[in-house]
Design goal:
The complex is a heterodimer of chains A (107) and B (125).
Chain A: E1 4-7, E2 10-13, E3 19-25, E4 33-38, E5 45-49, E6 53-54, E7 62-67, E8 70-75, E9 85-90, E10 97-98, E11 102-106
Parallel strand pairs in A: 2-11
Antiparallel strand pairs in A: 1-3, 3-8, 4-5, 4-9, 5-6, 7-8, 9-10, 9-11
Chain B: E1 3-7, E2 11-12, E3 18-25, E4 35-42, E5 46-55, E6 59-63, E7 71-76, E8 81-86, E9 95-103, E10 111-115, E11 119-123
Parallel strand pairs in B: 2-11
Antiparallel strand pairs in B: 1-3, 3-8, 4-5, 4-9, 5-6, 7-8, 9-10, 9-11
The chains are: A mainly beta (107), B mainly beta (125).
Chain lengths: 107, 125
């Protein structure tokens, strides 16, 4: 199975800050990475596919990059509604696997 | 728009069978470009993919090794839904269970784009 490791596990930031979350795959997975946002008590929300393509309706302050084993999710200017937990997920092989999550908290 | 509506009990006794259903609206369980998945989430395991069903001229299933001996995912074309059965449950199966659509499966755009609302299932006597 491909392991997805996110860092940091948690992050404190302020409204307006630029933040970056990193995800590393245990083997090369080309650009087969997706990102999700989850708020308490809710299902994950799909944000980014194929490492850098923004899902329709997702604000442009979200962006993704990377290929191979190293990937990043960047939020250019944090908004109050962005405080949540973020997950990466690989779609390169079965079983599909997720990172352990990065909790983004208000400073 | 596509929606997934989950149903099923929130409490299951140890050694019994967990059964959940995911009703699809706005898409078809027989779609040849998607797969239909079950994913669970617990504090100890995080987000864990359990398995999927999909149609490509015939029906296929894939299951996670961790549950392969206990899991069945079935499509129901007459009701446009799919189901999860997990046998011989233990307290370690306590989790929030989600159904999810995998868009453009097996392509670079493969991702879980639509999720059900989640069902908290507790395994306890």
């Amino acid at each position: 199975d491909i392991q997805m490791t996110q860092s940091p596990s948690s992050l404190s930031a302020s409204v307006g800050d630029r933040v970056t979350i990193t995800c590393r795959a245990s083997q090369s997975i080309s650009s087969y990475v997706n990102w999700y946002q989850q708020k308490p008590g809710k299902a994950p929300k799909f944000l980014i596919y194929a490492a850098s393509s923004l899902q329709s309706g997702v604000p442009s302050r979200f962006s993704g990059s990377g290929s191979g084993t190293d990937f990043t999710l960047t939020i250019s200017s944090l908004q109050p509604e962005d405080f949540a937990t973020y997950y990466c997920q690989q779609s390169y092989s079965t079983p599909r696997t997720f990172g352990q999550g990065t909790k983004l908290e208000i400073k | 728009q596509v929606q997934l509506q989950q149903s099923g009990p929130g409490l299951v006794k140890p050694s019994q069978t967990l059964s959940l259903t995911c009703a699809i609206s706005g898409d078809s369980v027989s779609s040849t470009s998607t797969t239909w998945n079950w994913i669970r989430q617990s504090p100890s395991r995080g987000l864990e993919w359990l398995g999927r069903t999909y149609y490509r001229s015939k029906w296929y299933n894939d299951y996670a090794v961790s549950v392969k001996s206990r899991i069945t995912i079935n499509p129901d074309t007459s009701k446009n839904q799919f189901s999860l059965q997990l046998n011989s449950v233990t307290p370690e199966d306590t989790a929030v269970y989600y159904c999810a659509r995998d868009q453009e499966a097996f392509s670079i755009n493969d991702a879980f784009d639509i999720w059900g609302q989640g069902t908290m299932v507790t395994v306890s006597s």
